[in-house]
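Summary of Year 1 activities. Much of the first year was spent building the evaluation harness for sequence design. The harness presents a backbone, in tokenized form, and records the residue chosen at every position. We chose the following record to illustrate the format because it has been used consistently in internal testing since the harness was completed.
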């Protein structure tokens, strides 16, 4: 039981760190840049771009 609690605590910490980093990126206005790159990669995979 202690092992489960410890592992879930680590998971929560990692998830919180990920959300914090995502929030920093969104606040800097990087979301449109990432979205544009994702669209370009998808178009290349399909063969349209």
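For this record, the design step produced the sequence shown next.
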């Amino acid at each position: 039981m202690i092992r489960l609690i410890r592992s879930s605590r680590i998971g929560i910490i990692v998830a919180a760190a990920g959300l914090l980093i995502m929030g920093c990126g969104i606040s800097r206005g990087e979301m449109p840049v990432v979205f544009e790159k994702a669209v370009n990669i998808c178009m290349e995979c399909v063969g349209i771009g």
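Residues 21 and 28 are 11 Å apart (CA to CA). Quantitative recovery figures across the full test set are reported in Table 2.
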